[in-house]
Design goal:
The structure is a single chain. About 45% of the residues lie in helices and about 15% in strands. The chain is an alpha/beta fold and about 220 residues long. The strands form two sheets. The chain has a six-stranded parallel beta sheet, with helices on both faces. It has a two-stranded antiparallel ribbon with strand order 2-3. Helix 1 (about 15-30) crosses helix 4 (about 65-75).
């Protein structure tokens, strides 16, 4: 059976409203104007330090405020869960994958503590054997090291990565693993521009797509 690693924000959950509210609390404390929800979605994906840098640049805050803004953002991140929603069909798809014998993990650029907090809050923690966060290793996606670590934690077997963004597509490509692209996440570029094995609109399609990848990568039986 397969080892399947999932991205988190924009793939399994829509956390943008919570991140948006947190970001604007941090900005308000600086006397800066808020960012929009659309900007929030565009800034997510490369980890908290990059999110804060993008947020700061959008409001023309000087570079020497970065450390203070990041500390304030991280201080509130584990509690930013109340408005986060699981995408439709996710739990049924994860149940089906586990019932088929697959092993599941998370690889996210979200720091580990906030990732674990939101997984617990949404009830998704029970599905995953390990969580690799944005501060679990020295590297973050699109460096392939966190994804490789996620697969390694699941033992042996075919590999599939599921994500929603250009960051995820590049990570999978660099790790040389099949990539399944969720069409309703936080991608900053046109989906057609992203390398992937398949794109899916609904999680009801995910188990069959995993089966198709396994069929394509299966080694022929020796005669």
């Amino acid at each position: 059976m397969a080892r399947i690693v999932f991205d988190l924000d924009g793939t399994l959950i829509d956390s943008a409203r919570d991140i948006h509210a947190l970001a604007n609390r941090v900005l308000m404390a600086e006397g800066a104007a808020p960012i929009t929800l659309d900007q929030t979605r565009q800034f997510v994906g490369n980890g908290a330090p990059t999110f804060v840098a993008r947020m700061r640049a959008a409001r023309n805050l000087p570079e020497d405020t970065h450390d203070r803004l990041l500390a304030a953002f991280l201080a509130g991140y584990s509690n930013a869960v109340d408005e986060t929603e699981v995408f439709p069909g996710v739990e049924d798809a994860l149940d089906a994958l586990i019932a088929a014998g697959h092993r599941l993990a998370i690889c996210t650029n979200k720091p580990l503590a906030p990732a674990q907090a939101v997984l617990t809050h949404t009830g998704l923690a029970r599905f995953f054997e390990t969580v690799i966060g944005g501060d679990s290793l020295a590297q973050v996606k699109p460096d392939p090291a966190p994804l490789i670590a996620g697969f390694a934690a699941l033992g042996t077997g075919p590999q599939v990565y599921v994500g929603d963004s250009d960051v995820d597509a590049e990570t999978a490509q660099r790790a040389e693993v099949p990539f399944l692209l969720y069409a309703h996440g936080y991608a900053r570029v046109a989906l057609d521009a992203l390398p992937r094995a398949a794109v899916f609109d609904t999680f009801a399609d995910l188990p069959a797509l995993v089966d198709a990848i396994l069929a394509q990568t299966a080694q022929p039986v020796s005669q």
